[in-house]
Amino acid sequence: MNKKTKLKPQSEDHVGSKEHTHDFTNGEIVQTRAELLAWYDKNHRKLPWRERVSQTDPNKRAYAVWVSEIMLQQTQVATVKDYYTRWMEKWPTVEHLSRASLEEVNEMWSGLGYYSRAKRLHEGAKKVIEEMSGNIPSTATDLLKQLPGVGRYTAGAIASIAFGECTGVVDGNVIRVLSRLCSIGALSSSNQAVEKFWELANKLVPEDRPGDFNQALMEFGATLCTPQSPQCHACPLQKHCSALKQVEEHKVSASMLLSGKGIKSADSGVRDDTVTDIEECKLCLPSTLWNASLGVCNYPHKAKKKQPKEETLAVVVLERVSELGSHFLIVQRPKTGLLAGLWEFPNTTVESSLPGTGMFTALGNFLESELGITLEQKKNVESIGEVSHHFSHIHHKYVVYAYKYTGHETLDETTHENREMKWIPRDDVDKAALSTAMRKVFSAFENYSHGKNEKQPAKVDRKRKRADPHDGRKQMVLDAFFKPKN
After folding, report:
1. Residue 69 annotated among the catalytic residues of the structure
2. What are phi and psi of 168, to 5 degrees?
3. Per-residue pLDDT tens for 326-365?
4. pTM of the complete model
């Protein structure tokens, strides 16, 4: 058994509920369910995936939820809505998706980011059709166990929303709401805190409307109990919020101290009721982390993010002009790792300190050794500028070059040293499975090309100018203007 410790007054040692329970009473559970569902029924957003949940076929409901939840991982709702609509129009059922190629899936996902999600979703669809007779698992346990890319949260969301299983969900929004309601100040990613959040979520979810309640809890965190600007004045759960109660108590204590009415210490002979013999609570927020100016935004407590790695890459947009028009070379990335399987313009990592000529030389060496392409005439190269793109763990700076390629390779798809390559016409660039970073690169190329063309002096047809009928009329008007009056 852990040793009992006599704690200092709470304001000096921990910031949290006085009893350190970090839990709901039975009465609070009943009230929280009713109040949150009433709020959700009145205020929930109309989203395309919610419209599909009304389908009578549970398998179609599950697929609709599955796609939406995978897309919503690490991505904002506003971005996902259009992608989701296009996706469901193309592949309305899990069977339709299973028949698609990974190339098609990547093209549809292009620009949404975190491309491994699309690959796992596609793999899962194929598994459902090939190994499960087309039936998506109906419980959170089976979903978690059997579908690639489905974690604890996604399994709970599909099971509760599509199949009505009474199981909770915990995502970033839910963590924020629960940490404030129960003043959980431990590092939100710690095992102890994570298990506590799941315990609370499973306690709260009702048997009669589990899917609606889980969506209500997430919606509440996304729109009302937000990270930086929570609307506490409009919150239907005010009376249950330990964080808000804490803020009010802090204001009262601060006011008393300013007025000289602070609580006397134990040395004066007056009993201090905040000194209790309890086990030290590891879920409370240490007072050293409490910031009065943040209010309820002291919760949840998150670890400081690591500084992302920075890399510089030289990238070239190779353009080959023929009687068929302009074609551009794209290369497929490896099947594993960052942006696996996507297509990109040829690029290589370079030292950021290299001069421009050095970067292009490194790029030329890469093209020759990896792709078997030789850049012969340096006069064909133009420096376009720089493009930045931030991934979650790495920041890329692309130094962009344009090159008019005059080689005689065919425009068909080719392979060199296990690297797939193909020349595609301009119209196909928008449809290709390019990452957002590569779309930025191509946009920079087009903006540069367009601006360069605009700067070219217009050629004047002198014969046409002399024959311009407006010239004579303009001269007649001017002659009339300067003609002296009688």
Report:
1. yes
2. -85, 175
3. 999 999 998 888 888 899 999 999 999 999 889 999 999 9
4. 0.78
